[in-house]
Fold this sequence. Notes:
This protein is an alpha+beta fold. The protein has twelve helices and ten strands. Helix content is 32%, strand content 13%.
Amino acid sequence: MMTNAQKIKAKALELGFDFCGIAKADFLADEAPRLEAWLTRNMHGQMGYMANHFDKRLDPRLLVDDAKSVVSVLLNYYPGDDPDNRLPEGADDYKISKYAYGTDYHFVLKDKLKDLLHFIHAEIGEVGGRAFVDSAPVMDKAWAAKSGLGWVGKHSNLLNRKMGSFFFIGELILDLDLDPDGPTTDHCGTCTRCIDACPTDAIVAPYVVDGSRCISYFTIELKEAIPQEVKGKFENWIFGCDICQDVCPWNRFAKPHQTPAFALSPELAAMTKTDWEEITEEVFRELAKRSPMKRTKCEGMVRNVRFINK
């Protein structure tokens, strides 16, 4: 007889998730002082939402009544090395983070998590719970690490020994007791490649990223003018940045994703450097209609391209 935990993990893999792990829904005691220090040092910049719901961010029982378990899932988005599946990233090319190549991951993960929750209701019974995908105060990397899916690396991304770090993370928080998995160990060792490679020195210490100095922050989250002090340091990234992941030795194990929705969109693949420099609201709307790029809006993308060129 399979346990409920085994049934859920098997169904998660059947739905296309790459990994699934379980942790006890409890207060994140180790994360609390780290989060408080990070916020106190204003490393969230203008991401005011990061300072909201401090208690809920650390305790899933405040998000789901009587929560007992956190089920974490990983979904690979690495495009592989086939040039037909990825944008060129030469010195003269404008660069888009790989996670934005296809359909917005919020839609894809949420649908799969809802399917997993429906399975739990059908197979196990009346279980209370909610699905979360990066849109509520849930510390997804901490929960994934607690459930044994990897460790949080020096660049603050979750690392998995089998497939690196190009993953989306989602959770089900359930009022169901499940057998928890134990955390894995850290395998960054003495490596500092991500720290050394960051052009804006956003990784201020091992395992500590100043979000307000990250290229992803400047190109996506920041709504005002990009500060001149980082001029010339973007290496042509106009939406997000993958540098710290691209240089990580663990990503030599990254495998091409198997999710058609994450495939490079034809519209994005067709964009030339001139197209980016002359982008209009109409073109951007078509390009970003089901893409994470919606978040930066057309005026943000225009600002990013101009910042690199002027």
